[in-house]
Each structure stands twice: as structure tokens, then as C-alpha cells.
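Assemble and predict.
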Amino acid sequence: MRLLVTGGCGFIGSNFIRHLMREHPEDEVLNLDKLTYAGNPENLRDVEGDPRYTFLKGDICEEADVRKAFEWGPEAVVNFAAETHVDRSITDPEAFVRTDVLGTFRLLEAVRGAGVRLVHISTDEVYGSIAEGSFTEESPLRPNSPYAASKAGADLLVRSYVRTYGTDALIVRSSNNYGPYQYPEKVIPLFITNLLEGRKVPLYGEGANVRDWLFVEDNCRAIDLVLRRGESGGVYNVGAGQERSNLELTRSILALLGMGEEHIQKVPDRPGHDFRYSLDCTRIRSLGWEPLYDLERGLRETVRWYRENRDWWMPIKSGEFREYYRRRYGDI
Ligand code: NAD
Ligand code: TYD
């Protein structure tokens, strides 16, 4: 299959491209990425020379860039390109509305014209927070951050193209991912790398908020399955059933590094902080998917990766990220 992947230089996109190259030797990939602060060509250094892989720098919001990508002749599109960090969406929401909503619209127009399948990568955050039980794909969308609202807007556009134009589009809504190549603004790589640098870890509020942690490779397998076997117009929740409070998560990371709770620095809570996300994953499981990693195994591999790949994260932490971190966390 000839696949257009957008946002392939980010965390999940780069893991997904590596997964494709490994699991589907017959596939060819065009990666369209704007290379924002979160897009890093280093994430795909190992596949760069592969004749099945092509990189195109471009913006999914720009019609001309999208047209150029479609001239390559993709048979399907997987859209990872997005602004993705909740805290940045609180201080600077405009980029989120632009890329996550307008960018998805541009891709929908292009797949409509070309008559090819779109797998749109969304998030559990579109449902909002749930105190007990789990969201199904039919639960109402009640996003609470500008990030989640922009992603929900994109999901609704996808739905409208399916209903109105019969576009072959599907949505994957996954829970929090973690693993190699995740930008260190997100909690797991931030905490691991801070500890490796001898810093403390900034825990929001009392650390009581709950997330369901999905190892990135498990998500890549789910997306791959939806791409090849998903029902047109379908929405698929993907979670690992590994719910932990942030304090429990932090204690696991500290334990893996042989460190104690004196390394935790409690900081003021995030405004509008969703308390808990939880997904009912009956539908994706009925396609034959199940997660292979529990949090303990996934965290062990992730900690090992960050320990062994300082050359990847140290330049990030001393670049754009340094100023962002200082403004946000002061001297923690
Ligand atoms: P990321 O922030 O690591 O990477 C985003 C990538 O998109 C970067 O390579 C960036 O350069 C690119 N990009 C941004 N704007 C673009 C534009 N206008 N045109 C082209 N490329 C652009 O993101 P991620 O964590 O890999 O997330 C990928 C997708 O998965 C997103 O849609 C996100 O909403 C979704 N998601 C992420 C998680 C998670 O835990 N990371 C969980 C659920 C869903
Ligand atoms: P994050 O990785 O930003 O993902 P999301 O907000 O999309 O779920 O945060 C995961 C959880 O960790 C969330 O409840 C907020 C919390 N958190 C902290 O306690 N400290 C931090 O410095 C960050 C970035 C997040």
C-alpha cells in the first residue's frame, strides 16, 4: 500500500512509520510534516535511507502542500499531524484551532477528491472527564481544554464527511501514549529526563488525576488494524486498561530509577484539569486487538530507552524547550 502519513516526525507518527516498515515490507510511505517544535527528523534517522520512505516538508493547513502530497498517489492517509500539548493549548490556543481543525479539513477535502481512505488519529480527551465507568464510542463529546475542543472539532468534521459525502474515513481515539521518542513536555518523558538530570519532578495538584497508559507500539498495532480492517465510518477507542493516578505513576518511575519521593515537587494544578479518562475498548478488541504491554513492562522499556538515548533528548531540553520549561516551571 502507498501510504501518506502526516505528522510522521512526531512521537506516535515516527513509531508508526517504523512499525509499517518492519511489519509491511511491501508498503511505501510519504511523510508530510511541518517540523514544528515537536517534529524531529532524528526520530526517523534509521528509516531515512530506506527506498520505501520519502519525506516532504509541508503544512496540512496549506492547500498547495496537501496537493503536492496527493500528487504522490497515496492509497490511504493516516493523520497524526496536530498540536498536542494541553498546557500549550491553554497559553496559546490559536495554533491548535488552526492545525487540528483547519488542517483536518484540508485533508478531508483532499481524500474526498482522491477517493481514498483516511484514518484520523484522535484522543480520549474529546469525551472529557469521567468519574466512574468508561466512555464508549457513542458517548457525547464534552472536551474541556482548547486542545481537546480542537480535536473534537476535527472528529465532528470527519463524521460530517462520512455522512454527507460518503468519505471513507475512520477515527481512532486512544488514551495517553508513552514510549521512545516522546517529546519531553509530556509527563512520562519529562519526569524520567528530569530525574536523570538531577532535577525534581513537577507534579500538578495532589497527583490524584487518573490516566490510562498505552504503550506506543500497542497503539501503532491498533491503528494499523483499523487502517486495514476497520469499518468505513467507524470510530475506535484504544486504551490499555492501565489506569494510574499521577502520584502512582510518579512512584513507579522513581522506583525504576532507585529514587525516593523527596524528588517530587508539588506545583499548582492545571486549569480545567480533567480528573480521569477511561475508554471502553470492546470494539477494537472485537477486531482481534489487545495490548501487549502492561504499564510496568512499558515503563521499564521507556526508562531504559531514555537512559540509553541521552543524545536524543539532551539537545531538545537545551533548545526551544529550555525557555518553555523555565517560563512554566521556574527553577524546578
Ligand atoms: P507530537 O506533538 O509528538 O507530533 C506532532 C507532529 O505533527 C510533529 O511532527 C509536528 O511537526 C507535526 N505537525 C504539527 N502541525 C503540523 C502541520 N500543520 N502540518 C504538518 N505537520 C504538523 O504528537 P503525538 O504525541 O505523536 O500525537 C500524534 C497524534 O496522536 C495527534 O493527533 C494527537 O492528538 C494524537 N494523540 C496523542 C496522544 C499522546 O498521548 N501523545 C494520545 C491520544 C491521541
Ligand atoms: P500530559 O502528559 O500533559 O498528558 P494529558 O494532559 O494530555 O493527559 O499529562 C498527563 C498527566 O500528568 C495529567 O494529569 C497532567 C499531569 N502532569 C503533571 O502532573 N506534571 C507535569 O509537569 C505535566 C506535563 C503533566
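The chain is about 40% helix and 15% strand.
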